[in-house]
């Protein structure tokens, strides 16, 4: 009798371990009502209805993660498909298997579930090769979950399949918790020195790069503050001495700089926009005369926007310094 009871306890323990190893991806309906459909498409037949606050369990996704295959809690069988925008959840869609590989595919390359997926953080351009100057083969909208087939040795580019169109996207434009090193290296670029795995950069070199950008921001930020104050005082009706500064210079990033601190590339767009806005506000100062209110507002707004963008980049660099350990 003791042996039987022992076996039962062991068996129940195995069931517990197995249940913990198979997490359920729960989600909640956030609209008044919606249809579950037979396929991941808006024109697919409706198979049942769900209502606000209903709980569902996701069991799969479509080729771009815009639709989730779901089941009812406690049920073994899938109940249908629901659009991702109609539900609330906290898990990563890329962890779900692709359970429909054909609906919505419009390109010539079949979609394959590679086991690794990324989420586009914004609108992302697909290139024919892993470089920014390569021809564009497609544009992936924001918040699409797409399978990854290959990577460059330096983990800076990923080969993805968006609805049947295969192309390369820059890593810094997508989000994933997956281990990039687990993705197969593209045989085409495996031996290309341009894509060789990055060398290990000493922390002091990385800190020097961060400090170089912070020093630049401080200098340009002082100019932006003066220009903003000029337009602020004019907006209050004050008479100001017209003495515009010279144009702000753009921050220079060489290929070597990006090797030493890849985070610099993420700041490029904000830095460029900040300088563009600041120089526009400076250029407006050069007219040195009577301004109309809308001209003052526009120039003041650009100067303020430049200050805001510079502060954002500075905060990011301070966070990078903390991560490095400086």
| pLDDT < 50 runs, ≥5 residues | 1-22
* N-end to C-end Cα span: 65 Å
Count of DSSP E strands?
Answer: 14
Q: How much strand?
A: 15-25%
What is the typical, i.e. mean, pLDDT?
90
Helix percent reads: 25-40%
Report strand order across the widest sheet: 6-5-4-1-7
* Order of helix and strand elements from N to C terminus: HEEEEEEEEEEEEEEHHHH
The tally of helices reads: 5
Largest sheet: 5 strands, antiparallel
Structural class: alpha+beta
Draw up the topology in text.
Elements: H1 2-21, E1 25-29, E2 33-37, E3 46-51, E4 55-61, E5 67-71, E6 78-83, E7 87-88, E8 117-120, E9 124-127, E10 136-140, E11 145-151, E12 157-162, E13 165-170, E14 174-175, H2 203-235, H3 255-260, H4 263-285, H5 293-324
Antiparallel strand pairs: 1-4, 1-7, 2-3, 4-5, 5-6, 8-11, 8-14, 9-10, 11-12, 12-13
Helix pairs in contact: 2-4, 2-5, 4-5
Describe the structure.
There is one protein chain. With 326 residues, this protein is of the alpha+beta class. The protein has three domains: 25-95, SH3 type barrels, CATH 2.30.30.40; 117-195, SH3 Domains (SH3 type barrels, Roll), CATH 2.30.30; 203-324. 35% of the residues lie in helices and 21% in strands. It is built from five helices and 14 strands. The chain has helices at 2-21, 203-235, 255-260, 263-285, 293-324, and strands at residues 25-29, 33-37, 46-51, 55-61, 67-71, 78-83, 87-88, 117-120, 124-127, 136-140, 145-151, 157-162, 165-170, 174-175. The strands form four sheets. Strands 6-5-4-1-7 form a five-stranded antiparallel beta sheet, with no helix packed on it. The protein has a five-stranded antiparallel beta sheet with strand order 13-12-11-8-14, with no helix packed on it. Strand 9 (124-127) and strand 10 form a beta hairpin. Helix 2 (203-235) runs parallel beside helix 4 (263-285), helix 2 runs antiparallel to helix 5 (293-324) and helix 4 (263-285) runs antiparallel to helix 5.
